[in-house]
Amino acid sequence: MTALIILMIVVLLVVISIQVGKVNELAGKIRGEEESFYQANDRTGLWLFLFMILFLVGCVVSAWYYKDVMLGYGPLKSASEHGGSLDSLFNTTLFFTGIVFIITQYLLFWFSYKYRAQKGRKAYFFPHNTNLEIIWTVIPAIVMTYLVVKGLVIWNTVMPDVDPDATDYMEIEASGYQFAWDIRYPGADGKLGTRDFTQIDLGANPLGQVWTDVKNHDDFMPSEIVLPVGQKVRVRITSKDVLHNFYLPHFRVKMDAIPGLPTYFIFTPIKTTEEFKQELRKYPEWQEPYDPSEPDGPTRWEEFNYELACAELCGEGHYSMKKLVKIVEQDEYEDWLATQQSYYLTNVRNKDADPYKGQLLDVDVKSRNAELNSAFADAEVEGIIRLKNVFFNTGSATLKDDSRFELSKVAELLNKYASMNIEVGGHTDSQGDDNANMSLSVNRAQSVLDYLVANGVSASRLVSKGYGELNPAADNETPEGRQQNRRTELKILSK
Ligand SMILES: [Cu+2]
Known about the structure:
Distance between the termini: 85 Å
CATH class of the largest domain: Mainly Beta
Bound molecules: copper (II) ion
Shape: elongated
Structural class: alpha+beta
Strand order of the largest sheet: 3-9-8-5-6
Order of helices and strands: HHHHEEEEEEEHEEHHHEHEHEHE
Largest sheet: 5 strands, mixed
Mean pLDDT: 89
Number of strands: 13
CATH architecture of the largest domain: Sandwich
């Protein structure tokens, strides 16, 4: 229907213009052909000149009117350290191209008016003018050289890579795929683990992390990007399928994500999300309601968030490649870090895909130490702290070497909380002879107590007790239950 109406309008316009042409022809015949030709020329020239004035004024007014929604102006000044220099490059280019734009538009329309055909005037013919040639070659050459050199200088300050041994930056990784981003942080060691595309398993290992590389063990994949303000960040950018583009408009960060060829961008955020919101708040258009159907709801500036987008038309779901970016103060960042779980520990550890299944790893010790820190800090009298990584040889009270991590941490914490008195309790499962279990638990508790004393804890603060199989923590019918029942516990007697 719409197409039919448009077609009819087009046909009508054609008919009208033919009719107008015919009327002009007739009028020309009446008034004399030549006379009407010059009159039409005068009119057209004048209209063109008026159009030019309106057009140029419109360009300037609309640019001014919309400047606060353009990156680089009003509230949308760069939120990164390097962004200002890129904005200044755009402004410089806009300045020169703006001058050229106005001069060429002026000449185009003014000349068509001034040199319109007039009675008795002949066109002046000149084939060549050296001065003009020099002017319009030399001036653009100088301007172009200036723009290119300035661009190169800025490129060279924004784009050089960091020294991999430097400690003044943090690295995160963004992997694009149809249609989302996987963000990976390096964890406590500050290093991203290696990847191998043949290891990719969409359910269990979406990035193809190589689990024999211990650097992977503490890497985590948050649902949003959180960064501390003032921190230099290197983003390693990769793609798992087609071309994507890592675009953080507020930080003037934009780089292709290319399958098989990691790229990078280094930037330093200088405004927290909160600071940026306070900037936006000063502008009336940002005080309007975020959702127009809810006039009393939150305003646009209150709902603002930095965003990561994909700036490559990568397919049907391209628009959904969006992630929130939060820039926060250092302490807030550390609180957030503490809530993040390593992908390996959460999804892979001790499963079949784990090459270290059943072995105690550095990353277990670290996360266990953090648990023990808070268990001791929050300990109540009569409370129980179950030790997880204390192992004995089968049927014996001899500690395995791997127990040293947990027990030396416990000794350190007991020395820190020096007024705490503790009972070390040994427990077994229900298999085998009851009396043998009882004496095994007594001996094992004593071994742990001896270890703590040997590590500087005063013997007067410790007692040991064997419970044998009397206090099961789980069902003795299953192997897992029995494993949980064979355990060492600390009971807080006083603090
Ligand atoms: Cu994309």
